[in-house]
Amino acid sequence: MEVNEPIADYGLLDLNKEYTYLDYMRFTFTERVELIKGKIFKMSPAPNRLHQSVVVNLNRLIDNIMKNEPCKWYPAPFDVRLKIPNGKKDHTVVQPDLCVVCDLSILDDAGCNGTPDLMVEILSPSNQNHDLDTKCKLYEEALVKEYWIVNPYNKSVLVYKLQNEVFIGLKPLVEGNKMISPLFPDLDVDVDAFFVNLD
Length: 199
Prior knowledge:
15 strands, 3 helices, alpha+beta, seven-stranded mixed beta sheet
């Protein structure tokens, strides 16, 4: 296979190989993947209805708040090329469920080329360990200022804020709690708002 030739079949990937963003741009198969430190991670199939209902709720909440902020927000699919300190600069591409970027200079036509301020992942049965462990460590290493993990199954939200380059986990939030974002104090909402209309 030639270097610039598109890769149209996921089965042609060597999962032991290290890939770059240029390789990632050649992938034309239908499966969704992320590139984490050069390694391919296959994403879940199309998210289920519960997951997507939470995405809709989050989009509404974030849209209302970001009207007062000099930031932009993007739901998936949206490529984020994370900058990992001491890592190869073109070896990590993720697609968070939602991200907020306040340094608009890192946005380009392909997505985000740098570290967003806020990353949000919504758990699905098949991706919980990936979001709770792999992504949490990765986002901390990339110096994401705030990371939310939204669990639609037990209707809870975990919030991590970056402090001295380390994620500090705040008290888990459940229905009936108020959520105030450490990074965006105007984002002051009832946790219940994340989980309305899930039936």
